[in-house]
Inverse folding.
């Protein structure tokens, strides 16, 4: 019997959402990166919706990024959204305990996406990091460019 532990692949995931008008036409973008045998591999994802909000796009960027990872991995998630970062690391447990209500007993906004994200959290080992948006962080800027490509894609379809 082999008792050697197999290390999980480590992935960096940079996510961003964009909305032109809030609500308005929105886009999300995700950059995934991992290194295998000394070679860096990257995957860019983006999409959007015709009538949405910035917070929904921020959440979709994370959800779509996680959906694209098919095997259990260690994922470092980088977001410029305090809403997403604090939502996952601080607020989610209490929202669930209160039946998807906020501390002031109002329904959680975007609970459909929060529930979907919550259902995905156990599939990977996740670490959550907030980065300042539009501050020159190269990978956050790439995620922002992808989110804006999602907006343009939606505009072209309408």
């Amino acid at each position: 019997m082999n008792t050697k532990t197999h290390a999980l692949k480590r992935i960096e995931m940079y996510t961003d959402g964009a909305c032109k008008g809030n609500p308005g036409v929105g886009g999300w973008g995700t950059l995934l990166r991992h290194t295998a045998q000394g070679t860096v591999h990257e995957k860019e994802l983006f999409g959007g919706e015709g009538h949405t909000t910035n917070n929904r796009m921020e959440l979709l960027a994370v959800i779509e990024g996680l959906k694209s990872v098919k095997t259990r991995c260690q994922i470092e998630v980088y977001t410029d959204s305090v809403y997403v970062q604090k939502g996952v690391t601080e607020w989610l447990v209490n929202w669930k305990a209160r039946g998807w209500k906020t501390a002031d007993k109002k329904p959680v906004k975007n609970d459909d996406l929060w529930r979907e994200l919550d259902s995905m959290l156990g599939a990977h080992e996740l670490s959550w990091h907030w980065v300042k948006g539009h501050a020159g962080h190269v990978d956050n800027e790439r995620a922002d460019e992808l989110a804006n490509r999602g907006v343009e894609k939606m505009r072209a379809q309408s």
Summary: The longest strand covers residues 39-52.
